[in-house]
Amino acid sequence: MPRGRRRTEKTVLDRHAMNVVVTYLIQMEGRPTIDEVLEVSKQKLQITTTRRQVRDAIEAVRRRGLVSVVHDFDGAGKSLERYAMRDVKFSKPPEIAHIKAILPTLLESEVAQMMTEEMEDEHEDGKKKGGRLPDIRDYVRYRIVYEIVTPLLGGEPREDKVLGFRHLNGSIWIPANLWLKAAIQIKLRMKNCTTTKAKYIEFDDIFLETKSTATEVLDTMGMQGPVKHEAMMPGMRLTTMVAFPTTGFMPETQFEDCLKSIRTGAKHKDYGLLKLVEFTKLP
User: Is the N end or the C end of the chain the one with fewer CB atoms within 10 Å?
Assistant: First the structure.
């Protein structure tokens, strides 16, 4: 190699190794965003990766209960999703300038091996390696309908300083797979079901035509005074589909109990009470 030229080696990791790396970086960085984890992975660890791969790795460890989402705002009032450690604690991280040197040790550590074994759930033709059926299986689908009991609030910042609902292609977008999963996790624990099993539940997101959706602006109180939220008012109904396993999870009647009364949306401790009015099994 000619003198004066520097060759930088890049590392390509499989998805299990990326799960370990993002967990470590979230612990080290404190409350990073996806972009911050991506930047450290590429610039400091010299890992060849993409934003989507980092996002998928964070989502994988979040579903396992290792990290949680922390909502924040930037200087312009734009909503940000940051990530923080929940249960797993690595040893005290070294200075960021030296973390590339510890990457091989990190990936071979006892904690990394434990995480890799726990997250190895690949199936072939519906079976685990070795031919055994997966422990969690036999999915069913239900149509569910909720009626809004107390105002359901949006929390996305808008230009008019109102916190509203997400919009996509001219429709109001309610991310049911995110909102409803989060809402039932405590109830899953009450049924002696670990919250990590929530990853096996899938809700269809809800899309409502803006022209036919009655929404109002509701004032609530925040730490610095009144806050305006776009709100869906009591009496409105939201329809979605849910798929969940019946083997290795819980009986269908118990899962219905988890769904009967939930709170979701912005400021869900005080608002966003939903009542289940339909739970119909689909063929």
Answer: C
Query: What span, in angstroms and rounded, lies between the C-alpha atoms of 186 and 192?
Result: 10
- Of the CA atoms within 13 Å of residue 28, those in its CB half-sphere come to 21
6: amino acid identity, one letter: R
pTM for the full model? Answer: 0.55
Domain edges within the chain: 15-120, 137-281
Give the CA distances from residue 222 to residues 151, 226, 227, 228, in Å, rounded to whole numbers and listed in that order: 16, 6, 6, 10
What does the pLDDT look like over 61-70, one tens digit per residue?
Answer: 787 777 788 7
Structure tokens at 80: 């940000």
What is the fold, at CATH topology level, of the domain defined by 137-281? Answer: Alpha-Beta Plaits (3.30.70)
CB atoms within 10 A of CB 283: 3
Among candidate residues 106, 93, 84, 112, the one with its CA nearest the CA of residue 26: 84
For 141-165, write each residue's pLDDT tens digit. 999 999 999 999 998 888 888 999 9
Cα(262)–Cα(269) distance, integer angstroms: 10
* Rounded Cα–Cα distance for residues 257 and 249 (Å): 14
| Alpha-carbon gap, residue 48 to 17, rounded angstroms | 12
Cα-trace Rg, the chain = 22
Q: How far apart are CA 47 and CA 69, in angstroms?
A: 24
Q: What is the CATH number of domain 15-120?
A: 1.10.10.10
